[in-house]
Write a sequence for this structure.
């Protein structure tokens, strides 16, 4: 497992905006000015962390904890507001793909363990590991199904 930390306020991968130039459709991110440097930072840190490793081939697990700044007037325990966790993870995975030396494509990610918390140092803590056996995934799925059934029964 290889881990790294990307400092800075995490940026979500927003919606796409489409327009036509000549006879071509062009898609661009609606928050390109913030997203581009964030993804470049993720790529740079991931590439540095992975410099001595071989690119992953096969199924991958990614664990990530997004640390968000807490506003002065915020009293809630967890950041249950925008940015959306799924959009944060899209930007993270695309940034790791941009690194070019971690994996071929983020489609290799078959398991995500992701959290969003408040903390004094904004950024994202990331751990990436290959998943070597289908049995591991089967056991996790079985455990999750068992836990869900127990929850329904109680």
């Amino acid at each position: 497992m290889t881990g790294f930390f990307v400092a800075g306020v995490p940026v979500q991968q927003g919606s796409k905006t489409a327009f036509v130039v000549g006879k071509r459709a062009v898609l661009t991110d609606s928050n390109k000015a913030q997203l581009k440097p964030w993804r470049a930072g993720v790529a740079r840190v991931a590439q540095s962390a992975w410099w001595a490793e071989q690119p992953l081939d096969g199924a991958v697990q990614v664990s990530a904890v997004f640390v968000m700044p807490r506003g002065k007037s915020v009293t809630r325990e967890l950041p249950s507001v925008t940015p959306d966790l799924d959009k944060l993870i899209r930007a993270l995975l695309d940034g790791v793909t941009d690194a070019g030396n971690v994996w071929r494509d983020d489609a290799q990610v078959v398991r995500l363990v992701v959290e969003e918390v408040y903390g004094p140092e904004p950024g994202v803590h990331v751990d990436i590991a290959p998943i070597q056996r289908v049995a591991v995934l089967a056991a996790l799925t079985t455990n999750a199904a068992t836990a869900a059934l127990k929850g329904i029964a109680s």
User: Anything to note?
Assistant: The beta strands are 2-7, 16-21, 24-29, 60-68, 109-118, 123-130.
